[in-house]
Design goal:
The complex is a heterodimer of chains A (about 450) and B (about 425). Chain A is an alpha/beta fold and about 450 residues long. Helix content of chain A is about 35%, strand content about 15%. Chain A has a six-stranded mixed beta sheet, with helices on both faces. In chain A, strands 2-1-4-5 form a four-stranded antiparallel beta sheet. The longest helix of chain A is centred in the middle third of the chain and has 18 residues. Chain A starts with 7 loop residues before the first strand and ends in a 31-residue tail after the last helix. In chain B, α5 packs parallel to α10 and α8 crosses α10. The chains are: A alpha/beta (about 450), B alpha/beta (about 425).
């Protein structure tokens, strides 16, 4: 293998899970719904490095890990391991890949068979791949156990006799049994207490040096990522939004999501209460129906207004949130105003009530005061709602406020610190106001 | 901020299991002042959740509060029960453990209420969120209509056997009145749930995790409690959602001035929220004080170890810097949280076997010593009294005669050798929230 070629190259990997995909559903003609767990992910992992994959739950990081090890079949895309496409492998080549790529799972309580002794658990990969003789295997298991900080005398004990940290060590020993080149660590410490977590992280670090391992570390914990990784890929809703060397990412995060993620973590220091924080509003959208364009735009505090709009960031964010609610029909007209103030027939209020209804609705939906021009647009749109015409309201607002973030999907560029965000798009001539970058 | 609202003294909670007696909480003292946020931090199995449940009186067999007193300051309550239960009164304080069950039950929700860790399993999936909130409101209403009596709640016509049978025939029957429902909607609005009118009619599965946690907070606030006990309120949530929930708790605390007892294993959450902190280890508070005392001037090696094992998010060296071998190595605490089985616990400092500064003096159980910093700063460690003395140090293998395994330089394993690994057997039902996490 040449020095430059990455050990693992992931290219456009997609993994969809299908809902409504049973025989009955097909019989009744229900369309299957894709859950886009991983949606076009690309990154490289070089030999000897640790790449971190960080994101919130449900963003597809574990699915990425499992799919690139071919524990799941991909929907699309390719993964090259040492120059060969993993999904084309078969027979001896696949067995060889299985030997060279291993995984450590998150939950040390459910990933070890309770009816096997730990010696058998660690030995199983050796049996499966037919490595060595019986005595050699037993010797190797004892070595491994000692290497991960357990005692070789414990070889005949069962998993329930061990604590969480010790069990995770057993999982690590099992992953190392076949002398792999590449290990996927799927949240290896998230089930552990902090003091034990530190032991396991130090162990992983030592093992990497000793056996020249390449790691893919999947974690939701940014402090662990910062401590262990060389480079980091940040995932949001099935996509990678930013990849950067670890010190760049933490010192100078470019994507608004990365920035929000970093700000959200409470620091264990006495200055924490005085720290400026900007908390992200809202929840992660469903991967069944991800937002168009940039997937983060529904929560992004820096969503980009159209050029000709003279409007500050917060007001624009509020308007975009209003639009999203109207587009999702997530506004209830029945409960506007006090008790029975408005009667709603055929989805709308009587013409005489419209101005009062609009005022009450605006009061409820918008917390900010709008400049006059925008006020007029919003009232127009809400008046359409008052007559029950959701589409017209939607159109009215879209014409006025459509953002580049919803039209175009930002591409993750090249280079050492690519970011998938229109704020960093050279193609679009846009200089955001200086303060909006802070 | 000077009035004590809750004073727990010498509290011991034990579990009587097949393996033996588990000393989940031992002789614990705790004072909480009105309007403060008091944090308890510790690893799983340190007894923090059991402490919270003891205060709430939610200890179930095989557990039992075997000793101690929990005093709660509430002059109104004192007046209300003075005639019936004179034993339970101490000045303005009520001794909770002296009260009969029905009175204690009537305090739940109105005086104390609790937020649990896992919102998804804490709601009843078959009732709408609004109904469950309204139920809490109803309970509170009846309790305040006939103060400190639980009778009104259980013997009214709505809860009669006939009514139960009727509800089987007409499942749409509602148990909550219109006013309670409106109040439930107000509460949902208070905790920042958009469109509360509609959301009240949705079932828990239609909510996201963060929303459900908000709803649980709303439910806990229904009774306008004096003390809110939050047991790992954000552990099941993502960081961005965690930040939202912490903001919410912070705002609510500032608006209503309620007292919060916050239990968590996350030191960052403690730093974000708390005025005073207690660090728990093996069923005891080993160090307590203001946030500054504990985070900046800690005495106890366990506190130091806990803070040292958290990887930094800012400053310090990252892995790619030069000489990372020394610069960025985490400083773990060797070993594991001890078993709390009575017959395996010696009468010594419970941390001595993992402590880097263990001395012969540590073989006696240390009292709480006052420590530097603020007046509230106390540490259950001899180091508060004297300097570490190498000559008096215990030899490395003092607690395990057998030798450590070879090739183990990254971190000490827990209990090598011939003894079975000392740890609490994992019983799913007994696991605390943190462990299940």
């Amino acid at each position: 293998m040449s020095v430059d070629a990455p050990l693992v190259r992931v290219d456009g990997l997609r993994k969809y899970f299908w809902e409504n995909d049973s025989l009955l559903d097909r019989l009744f003609g229900d369309e299957p719904v894709p859950v886009r767990a991983v949606d076009g992910v690309s990154f490289d992992i070089h030999e000897g490095e640790t790449l971190g994959l960080v994101g919130e739950s449900g963003c597809g990081k574990s699915t990425t890990g499992e799919t690139l090890l071919r524990l799941q079949e991909p929907t699309e895309g390719r993964v090259e391991f040492d120059g060969e496409n993993v999904y084309d492998l078969g027979g001896a080549a696949l067995t060889d890949f299985r030997r060279r790529a291993q995984v450590v799972f998150q939950d040390p309580f459910s990933s070890l068979d309770p009816r096997m002794t730990i010696g058998d658990i660690v030995r199983q990969p050796l049996d499966v791949h037919g490595v060595g003789t019986d005595t050699e295997r037993r010797e190797r298991v004892r070595d491994l156990l000692e290497r991960v900080g357990l005692s070789a005398d414990q070889i005949d004990r069962y998993p329930h006799e061990f604590s969480g940290g010790q069990r995770q060590r057993i999982g690590i020993a099992r992953a190392l049994a076949l002398e792999p080149d590449f290990v996927v660590l799927d949240e290896p410490t998230s089930a552990l207490d902090v003091s034990v977590q530190a032991q396991v992280l130090n162990l992983l670090d030592d093992l990497q040096d000793e056996f020249d391992l390449t790691y893919l570390l999947i974690s939701h914990d940014l402090s662990v990522i910062r401590h262990v990784c060389d480079r980091v890929a940040v995932m949001y809703l099935g996509e990678v939004v930013e990849i950067a060397p670890v010190e760049d990412l933490f010192a100078d995060p470019d994507h608004p999501y990365t920035r929000a993620l970093l700000e959200s973590v409470p620091r264990a220091s006495t200055d924490e209460r005085e720290r400026d924080r900007e908390t992200l509003a809202g929840d992660v959208p469903s991967p069944r129906d991800p937002p168009s364009g940039c997937r983060f735009r529904t929560r992004c505090p820096m969503v980009i207004p159209p050029d000709d709009l003279d409007i500050d960031r917060e007001t624009y964010r509020a308007l975009m949130t209003l639009r999203q609610r109207i587009e999702q029909r997530d506004v209830s007209l029945e409960s506007v105003g006090g008790d029975d103030q408005f009667t709603i027939d055929d989805g709308g209020v009587p013409a005489a009530d419209v101005p009062a209804f609009v005022a009450a609705l605006k009061d409820r939906l918008l917390a900010v005061d709008l400049p006059e021009r925008h006020d007029a647009i919003v009232e127009d749109a809400l008046a359409e709602l008052a007559t029950g015409d959701w589409d017209a309201a939607e159109d009215r607002l879209r014409t006025a406020y459509e953002s580049v973030c919803e039209r175009d999907h930002p591409e993750l560029g090249d280079g050492s610190h690519p970011v998938a965000c229109h704020l960093h798009d050279d193609a679009i001539e846009r200089t955001p106001a200086p303060d909006s970058l802070d | 901020m000077t009035e004590e609202i809750l004073r727990v003294s010498d509290l011991s909670t034990r579990y009587f299991t097949q393996e033996g007696q588990v000393n989940a909480v031992s002789s614990l003292d705790l004072e909480i002042e009105r309007g403060e946020v008091f944090g308890i931090v510790g690893e799983s199995g340190s007894g923090k959740s059991v402490t919270a449940r003891s205060v709430m009186d939610l200890i179930e067999p095989p557990g039992e509060i075997t000793d101690g007193e929990i005093r709660y300051r509430n002059p109104d309550l004192v007046e209300a029960i003075a005639d019936d239960h004179p034993n339970a009164i101490d000045g303005e304080f009520v001794k909770l453990l002296e009260l009969p069950d029905d009175v204690r039950r009537s305090l739940r929700g109105t005086s104390f209420s609790m937020i649990f860790q896992d919102p998804e399993s804490s709601f009843n999936p078959t009732l709408t969120v609004g109904e469950q909130l309204a139920e809490a409101v109803e309970v509170q209403r009846r309790a305040s209509a006939t103060p400190r009596s639980t009778r009104a709640r259980t013997e009214s016509a709505e809860y009669s056997l006939g009514s139960l049978l009727l509800s089987n025939v007409f499942p749409s029957r509602r148990y909550v009145s219109e006013e309670s429902r409106d109040r439930a909607i107000e509460l949902l609005e208070l905790v920042g749930i958009p469109d509360p009118v509609e959301r009240a009619d949705e079932y828990p599965h239609e909510y996201s995790g963060g929303m459900l946690q908000r709803a649980m907070i709303a439910q806990a606030l229904a009774g306008e409690p004096d003390v809110l006990i939050a047991d790992e309120p954000t552990t099941a949530l993502d960081v961005t959602i965690q930040a939202q929930i912490l903001d919410l708790l912070d705002d609510l605390q500032r608006e209503t001035g309620m007292t919060i007892l916050l239990i968590t294993h996350n030191l960052g959450v403690i730093a974000r929220m708390c005025d005073r902190v207690g660090v728990m280890y093996a069923g005891e508070i080993v160090e307590r004080g203001t946030l500054e005392d504990v985070f900046d001037e800690q005495i106890h090696p366990y506190t130091a170890g806990l803070l040292g094992s958290v990887p930094d998010l800012e400053g310090g060296a990252t892995r790619r810097d030069a000489d990372r071998r020394t610069a960025d190595r985490l400083q773990p605490i060797p070993g594991n949280v001890p078993s709390l089985l009575d017959h395996e616990m010696d009468d010594r400092c419970q941390f001595a076997d993992r402590c880097p500064k263990a001395m012969t003096a540590c073989l006696e159980h240390p009292p709480e010593y006052p420590a530097g910093g603020s007046d509230a700063h106390r540490a259950r460690c001899v180091l508060a009294e004297r300097e570490y003395d190498e000559d008096a140090a215990l030899s490395d293998g003092y607690f395990d005669e057998s030798k450590r395994p070879v090739g183990d330089e990254h971190a000490e394993p827990a209990e090598p050798g011939t003894e079975p690994p000392e740890e609490r057997p994992q019983q799913p039902a007994e696991n605390t929230g943190g462990e299940r996490q």
